[in-house]
Amino acid sequence: MARALREFLPARAVLWQEEDTRPYECDGLTAYRNVPMVVALPETSDQVQRILQTCHALGAPVVPRGAGTGLSGGALPPGNGVLLSMAKFMRVLRLDARGRIAVVQPGVRNAAISDVAAPFGLYYAPDPSSQIACTIGGNVAENSGGVHCLKYGLTVHNVLRVRGYAMNGEALDFGSEALDAPGLDLLALVIGSEGLLAVATEITVKLLPKPVAARVVMASFDDVQKAGDAVAAVIAAGIIPAGLEMMDQPATHAVEQYVGAGYDLQAAAILLCESDGIVEEVEDEIARVITVLERGGATRIAVSRDEAERLKFWSGRKAAFPAMGRISPDYYCMDGTIPRKRLGEVLHFIGAMEQKYGLRCPNVFHAGDGNLHPLILFDANDADQLRRTEEFAAEVLEKCIGVGGTITGEHGVGVEKIDQMCLQFSAAELELFHAVKHAFDPRGLLNPGKAVPTLARCAEFGRRHVHGGQLRQPGLPRY
Amino acid sequence: MLAAFQQRIRDAAGRAAPLRLRGGGSKDFYGGALLGDVLDTRGYAGVVSYEPTELVVTARCGTPLEELEETLAANGQMLAFEPPRFGGAATLGGCVAAGLSGPRRAAAGAVRDFVLGARLLDGRARELNFGGRVMKNVAGYDVSRLLAGSLGTLGLILEVSLKVLPKPAAELTLQLELSAEQALEALNRWAGQPLPVSASAWRGGTLGLRLSGAPSALQAAAGKIGGAAIEAGQAARFWSGIREQADLFFSGDAPLWRLSLPSHSPGLALPGEQMIEWGGALRWLRTAADATAVRAAAERAGGHATLFRAADKAAGAFAPLSPALLRLHRELKAAFDPAGIFNRGRLHPDF
What we know:
- The complex is a heterodimer of chains A (479) and B (351).
- Chain A is α+β, with helices and mostly antiparallel strands.
- Helices cover 37% and strands 19% of the residues of chain A.
- In chain A, a hairpin with a 5-residue loop joins β8 (159-165) and β9 (171-175).
- The longest helix of chain A has 20 residues, at 383-402.
- Chain A starts with a helix and ends in a 15-residue tail after the last helix.
- In chain A, 56% of the residues are buried.
- Chain B has 351 residues and is of the alpha+beta class.
- In chain B, 29% of the residues lie in helices and 25% in strands.
- Chain B has 11 helices and 17 strands.
- In chain B, the strands form 4 sheets. Chain B has an 8-stranded antiparallel β-sheet, sandwiched between helices.
- Chain B starts with a helix and ends in a 15-residue tail after the last helix.
- At the A-B interface, β9, α8, α9, α11 and α17 of A face β7, α6, β9, α7 and α8 of B.
């Protein structure tokens, strides 16, 4: 394989010795590891095309990878194929300030786009918490969100065009610099497809004018459900905040030790509610938010007085994941989305699971859009704790489905939640996903084994996992 | 009702006979050929669930759009993409299938941006669910968004969940006398500033600009932009005329082209009257010019041209697809509708 790639790639672009390939053995989900046979680091689109053509001809699987910050194992390497690192695609190809777009290569970091747009008063809106490291190519693969997506949307709402290649090396061009393109909306299909349909080499994103003002309200509640109800009340008042985040007490305690954001440690939950826009608008909205939160029973309210304080209030939320790393050897981050009104019930359920499995689980919550990140704290060196963590997580994901939500709001299915896909989708629905995959990649070589389980796998999972005495998908052959 | 739909689909698939999925028929003029027996979706109607504080509404395909929007308005909410109704008959299913968005599109997003989930019957009459009723969901391919604008070619959309938004606290419409070039320059300049512009429409030397948001924000923005504010009733009639294509610009028999272009593309050197919407990203053109010339001009500008309304659509309603995309379209069509029965010819002459 390495020899075949060396025919058209320079030596520095093909890694095959274990000391070089080991760093690629996992992404942000470190529980799954696999040292790739070969890592390819192309520098041009032509090289990407030839890598794909070569692998297609040899029947070798290809797994694309951005910065490797993904949390679902979407970039877990194939043992018998090529890990295609897009790390060298780091150029901003064009920034059109007047047209408010940037054409960038997939290896450009999310935050770097806003950095180059800043002198024009523009920015790229989606801001996943890994934004200083994660790349736009990975964001496209996962349809990443962030803390501002209730108001500004996900990746799918902020990308105009994706150009790249199919697994067989055929050039593809989805979307355009206009707001739509003829035919089916394949751009929407490709975004969030977890690298299973095509490899992106060029991405055109929308840039928005940077709001001139932003302030954040921090409110304390003595009860988690009250905080959840207050979120509903904010929405009911016709307010769409720029950001609306919630953390429970164990989460605030963990981050407060780590960054000292000034969080109220007495509160059962705190809400962060941000308003942005022009100065007059922000002042109006902040006043309305305070009224609603006070009526909702907030026990303490603070409003950021300046930009430094606004960033301080956010620092705890943005540092929530690393803060868990300080109080526990390992943590496992879940990503369910639930209808917001079921929050109290789901948190209560998680509390019961903490008892059942003997593990702690702080919660951070993108409250505006119902995306819950419970963080199970465990020690991976203890095999039993790892097993309990996995069972705990599986029960929580099933609860999310049970209340009408989903197993993944923004982190993707990857390898991590592939079994739970069998619970969320019927055999016919999974079959259709496979047919979609087949349309793009008939030989199933691009990022195989991720995102969509085979029906055989679901049958096996169903046999192990009889829920409430009822077989899910009883029509499937089981073996 | 569902069983009857399934029977019709199985029957049509068995005979490989085209089936024409149709709601109120308000958009019969749009797209390619209308082939096959009509399957009327209007009987499958009604709001299934609506939680204003969750910002999500789920309704069946036959639900009249007008009724749905009234339900939302009673709770101070709206479909932010302002879909055209083209008369009172439009249904939710047709709205999503056609994928047409109205004046607020450039500011708020298109139909596809608000689709959260869908239930459909595929070409094997299987009932399938994609997406969901929550704001964020990345489990599985985003099939529900793919349905937006598919013109019914992938399946019978039974039910759709949409994100809804609160109506703005206030709106203000300004009128400015500008040439087309001046309007394009100004629209792109304003779009790069944090101004609450929610709609724009230029025609015949006048630009209408709608601002939406907090009253304080509107006053501040109006001060920066200039122009003359028009009275609320007049503004409502103006925007309704644009959205529903009842404006005088749309009357008469000249073919109507819809050009979707990068917003700062210069004015097109094509004969005929034009209207500019969406901050410059949408240009309507009334012209008898040759279709090839119109399409070539749109393509040169980085966009595409649709023959939106015309007595003669021999030139094809939609811009042709590249060979690679056409192959993907065929494969996807076969995946959803193996017998090729749904709205044959509506999106593409070949399927």
